Amino acid sequence: MHFMVAILISATAPCLGGAVYDSLADFPKSMTADYDYIIVGGGTAGSTVAHRLAEDNETSVLVIEAGGMHTESLNLKVPAWYAREFNTHLDWNYISVPQSGLNNRTLPYPRGHVLGGSSCFSGMAITRGGTENWDRIAEVTGDKGWSWESLLPYMFKNEKLLSPMDHHNTTGQVIPSVHGHDGLVGVTPPSYPSPLDIKVVNTAKEFKEEFPYTQDMNSGNEIGIGFQLSTIRNGVHENSATAYLGPGFIKAHKIDVLLNTRVTRMVPDASYPGHKGLQFRTVEAANDKLPSYPNRINLTVRREIILSSGAINTPQLLLLSGVGDSKDLATLNLTTVLHNPFVGAHLADHPGVTLSWFVNETFSNDTAAALAEWKEKKTGPLTITNTNMRGHFRFSRRVGEEYKKRFGKDTPGGKDSAHYEIVFLHNSASTTRATFGMFVTLLNTQSYGTINFLAKEEDVFVLREGVRAALRFIQGKAWTGYLLDPVAPQPEFDTTDGDIDAWIRTNAASMRHPLGSAAMTKVVDSELRLKGAKGIRVVDASVFPLVPSAHTMTPVYIIAEKAAALIMKDWDREN
Q1: Is 495 in the same domain as 414?
Q2: What is the pTM of this model?
Q3: How many other C-beta atoms are found inside a 10 Å radius of the C-beta of residue 11?
Q4: 97 domain-assigned
Q5: How many domains is the chain built from?
Q6: What are the positions of the active site (predicted)?
């Protein structure tokens, strides 16, 4: 009797212990229908959702990632070197179409083609956005679950606030009570002081009406200048894969990761013909490294397909699966399975421009010594990016009235939302001399489309006011004798509006924050389920219905933590 019970327990107990497969060639063909959830994309959102679902030992998860393993690159570990993998095999290497708002220039569009996705390519800034950002999303979706207050538990669940590696006193730089202390993503204040820090702080004190200092930009009040928190753990760049898909977790749970494999489409279930009852339970996949993707296989899921391929690839996959505007699909000889004209049509981003000067400072370029220190102690200048401080700001009342008079509407965002951001950059230009720069970012773009930078004149207006604000900032006493000549031609204090606008259109670049291409209310519902079909949920930056005044990595983590809870709640309710 005891022997029979033991056999029954053994047979019915979940078989824990996942694996990482380097390609489809290594993946057991016997496992193509073994999973409760298939997650398409192991990036910022996909890794997060995968971990949370697999925490339930009864649940099996497969993550399919087009790229390879993140651990192969030193550049993705050293915080100061994150951008060195742009335009490499770890990058999707996208290029935008010519942008009419940028004098028909094309822009490089780096996206992470690697486990961890664009969290590996991120500048690591922790910016949640303000309370009003999330409350507006709750209002637009009609779902209070997207309000700031409702999302706070997920913000805390994502973060683990850590001490900086130099162990300096962080009083005044961060409010510990507004951060998580038991989450999975390590976050820390700057571990290495920049000579700019004190200058920026003193200027904020001098011009406190326009440029107030704030102790923590992630408290819900985003307005003001503060120290940047970054996704850095013990001096090493933390990405979603290191935080959520570590080898120890995979080994202990029913989660498999299939690398170098591209999902080519989702296949509708043949037993549900027509639009009524449309359901997806199958993904078609192929080796990402082989041209034309031969030898495709189908993998079938028991519960849901979770599409987490990012704001570029998610709408692409929906279109390839026959979900999109029927006219566009017909031009590509694709059969329409579900007509939705909003798929891929609502994309937005944060454009910005850089002002940069040579400075009266000794330039240190001893990379070998810095790397040796980082390897031995995980301290020194390589533990930070080229910024320790940033600020979010609003128009003055006068400028707000001018905006309303010119464009016939209130300024974008709400009454407490920032209009533009200034990032303070140490050694902002690739020169052999020390430089200081300010990257001025448009936070609430009104230009939507596929990629459609500065299509709206009101966006140029906002960005111009941000440039003027930056030029006012350097009139502070701290900059006297420090700033020398501009690195390149750029606006000055008395430059005309028209000349600034022309300079912006010639020089603006992307902050690499694409979002909104499969937005809530238009493509997915407020629980992120594909509208008009069953079996697909979208979890990534494409679901934002509004542009947050934040760098998108942290908001995507928040969405992913929330989404995992929604998915588990749905399954619990059904069973």
Answers
A1: yes
A2: 0.95
A3: 7
A4: yes
A5: 2
A6: 513 (proton donor), 551 (proton acceptor)
